[in-house]
Amino acid sequence: METRPAFSKAGFFMSFPVLSLIKNLSIQVSAGLQSVKGVFCRHYAGIALQKNRVQILIKTAHHYVLQDHEGQLGGELIYDNADMTNAAIRVEGELLEISYSIPGKWVSVQKEQGASRKQFLAALRPGGTIYLNHCSLRRYYSVRKSGKYNGRFDLVNRKKEELLTIHPLINWKLRGHEYRIQLNEEYRQECSSLLILQAVHCVNCLLGIINGTAVPALVDI
User: Fold this and answer.
1) What's the CA gap between 136 and 141, in Å, rounded?
2) To which H or E segment does residue 45 belong?
3) Which tens digit of pLDDT belongs to each residue from 172-218?
């Protein structure tokens, strides 16, 4: 059976079977692009970004609870009193005790089987910054007021790269601060619940010093 040639706009002769094959291929490619487009559009629709958002809620003015975007409990930060000299962090069965050791410094210690191991050392510095040393991992961070927004705090590493951003929110009923926290996707694995709660403790101390409810500031913030 002889097939009659068809003339395309490009000036080439193609038989009808070839045209039919090309049409089918174009439909399959188009369907594939639509599925791929749907995958990549999820990030811009906010689905992926929601996983990088956590929040700190308060049960009382001295009891802070870390929750992820699904409302799952990630840890707790509990102070003995309003001056924030002593506190405890509970994360997945682990207990860290925070104490105001010497002027301008807080030490976090983990106790296991009668032994104590230093986990974090926080030190107040001029300019509204608290240096945070993760002793067990030998990592160094800073919690500082954002240069762009006065009501925002950033946790940065030694290279000044932002790991997370903390936005304070006032809970008027319980007379305390809650926080909305945005994690940097690049460092999401590094931002453990323990590190997040330590950063929140630093922000609590800075806000407490500014408001006159925490230990007195020994440097100008």
Assistant:
1) 13
2) none
3) 888 888 999 999 989 988 999 999 999 999 999 988 887 776 665 55
Encoded amino acid at 108, one letter: S
- How many other CB atoms are there within 10 angstroms of residue 158's CB atom? 9
Provide DSSP, 75-98.
Answer: EEEEESSTT-SEEEEEETTEEEEE
Whole-number Å distance between alpha carbons of 70 and 46: 14
**Alpha-carbon distance 55 to 194, whole Å?**
14
Q: How far apart are CA 101 and CA 87, in angstroms?
A: 12
Question: Shortest CA distance to 181 belongs to which of 162, 158, 159?
Answer: 162
Nearest 5°: phi and psi at 218?
-100, -5
| Bridge partner list, 109 | 97, 118
Q: How far is residue 106 from each of residues 27, 99, 121, 201, 215, measured CA to CA in Å? A: 64, 6, 6, 10, 11
3-state secondary structure of 183: strand
- Write the single-letter amino acid at 68: D
Q: What is the DSSP letter of 69?
A: T
Largest CA distance in the chain: 97
Helix, strand, coil share (%) of the chain residues, nearest 5: 25, 45, 35
Supply the pTM of this predicted model.
Answer: 0.72
CA pair distance 29, 178, nearest whole angstrom: 49
- The DSSP bridge partners found for residue 154 are 144, 165
**Count of alpha carbons within 13 angstroms of residue 158, beta-carbon side:** 5
Cα(216)–Cα(221) distance, rounded to whole angstroms?
A: 11
Residue tagged 């009501």 (tokens): 151
